[in-house]
Amino acid sequence: MADLHALDDHADLLGPDDIAQLLTHHSQVLQQIASGTPLPQVLDGITVALEQLISGSRCSILLLAPDGATLQHGAAPSLPAEYSAEVDGIALGPTAGSCGTAAHSGVRVIAADITSDDRWDDFRALALPHGLRSCWSTPILGASEQVVGTFAVYHDYPHTPDRRELQLVDRFTYLAAVAIDHAALYGALADSEEQFRRLFDDNAVGMALIGLDGRLGRTNDALEHALDRDAADLDGVRFESVLDTGSVRPWQEAWSAVVSGETESTSLQVDLIATHGRALTVMATLSMVRGHRDLPRFVSLNALDVTARLVALEDRRARREADIARSTAEAASRAKSEFLTTFGHELRSPLQAIIGFTELFGTLELDDVRRREALGHITGATSQLLAMVDDVLDVSRLEAGRLPVSLADTAIGAVAREAAELLRPLADRRSITLDCDGSLDVSAWTDARRLRQVLINLISNAVRYGAERGTISLRCEPIEADTVTIVVHDNGPGIPADLLDRLFVPFDTLGAEGKDGTGPGVGVGLIVAQGLCEATGGALTLTSDPGQGTTARVTLPLAEPCRSGGGSGESRVVGRTQRPPAAE
């Protein structure tokens, strides 16, 4: 490498502007080197910087090839690409142009006029077509004072460099040497790091180097210990031979992906068979190791024993499942307790009414009018009890798949109006209007009794929780895809968004109290309604906008008047098949 102190002997040849630019360019290049900028970019920056200081110049840097006998392209941003390609790989020699000769002799070569310089006899035909008339080349000496490349300056006219230009070239040649040595050093360090990273003798993880033929080469102590075999016993053995039968195929696929170049690295879980048949599970990572010119050399194997980890995971999974089962059982127990408490409360009111009016018959002489009123109250309370019991039984039948249904062409309008009339007294007490639209006059293939049960549930909920003096409307949406949809809408306060997902949870009353003075209910009405819709081939969904009311949609198969039997029914026993979402 050139001596900077020797270069300083002629520092007076450089003017203040030269020195300022020189310092700026040096600073920029050194920053690039420090930041790890790739060598080609650094060399480009050096050549461009010198071109700015020497008028009319075009510069190039050639690097000594690994074979030590040729020069390779390093940088030539201003030279024609065709010319750069033609001199790439030029051999060193005493008459090899300026660069080949300078690299061969180790001293600067100045060809003031390429047309007459005999060192250019074999290369003149390459340079002149590109307008190159002069070339002087300085050998770049590395830290060991060996030639590592050349720095050439071309002009489009005959030219002999002056002392200023020579000094500038020496400065930038030194800078190029620093960049090349730095790149070589870090390249060697990178190679060393790669080799060191692959050295694995003391690694606790089982490791091996496997040839491209699939045979084990070097193995470390951890892998040998895991397989209960020594290095000599494993050397040359195909790795597949230590695999459990079930792991051979996945291993072959992973191996093929790495060796073919489809991927540089892959991982998979395989089972190994050690001496005496002992099995162990490992997470195997295969990585391609490349050598000179990036050619594949061998495959590195990391085999992390996860046998104990899998056992621990399985134990944790079993404990987690037990915790879930316990939590589920506790939740079911709580739900049952809450249900029994609520159900008992709901039963008490109609039972008290029955008992009270029954006592009247035993203690008082009632005239016909009062007797009929008392019997009416007893009948109403009894019906309420029966409906509650039926709902609970229906839940059980649905879950058990034993709910009887009888499907037939059903007039929706008649069923809807009947349900509305049954609940009109309850609605009148809250000044709620029940409106049955004419669009209801269509037919569906369903169970009329079950449909009435669904609509009574939906309408009663709307009455109990809707707005006083509000409106509950029943209508049908336009027919689509051989289905008909019944819409029950109220203009009440709506259901909070965070409660929508709980609408179809059995025995969950959402903590709501009926606005008609009743309690929260048993919490099975909607789950029964949903199950009945599913059981008859339909679906129930609910949407709600707080402050805008709640809308229930019952979608049923459209009736087919042309069914065989002229509308004769179909009876069967069904259960719940799926749970549609509470809201869309």
TrEMBL record:
Residues 557-584 are annotated as: Disordered. GO terms for cellular component: plasma membrane. It is found in: Cell membrane. It catalyses: ATP + protein L-histidine = ADP + protein N-phospho-L-histidine. PROSITE patterns: HIS_KIN. Its main location: membrane. The keyword Kinase applies. Residues 342-560 form the Histidine kinase domain. The keyword Transferase applies. Keywords: Kinase, Phosphoprotein, Transferase, Two-component regulatory system. It is an enzyme of class 2 (transferase). GO terms for molecular function: histidine phosphotransfer kinase activity; phosphorelay sensor kinase activity. Its EC number is 2.7.13.3. PANTHER family: OSMOSENSING HISTIDINE PROTEIN KINASE SLN1, TWO-COMPONENT HISTIDINE PROTEIN KINASE. This is histidine kinase.
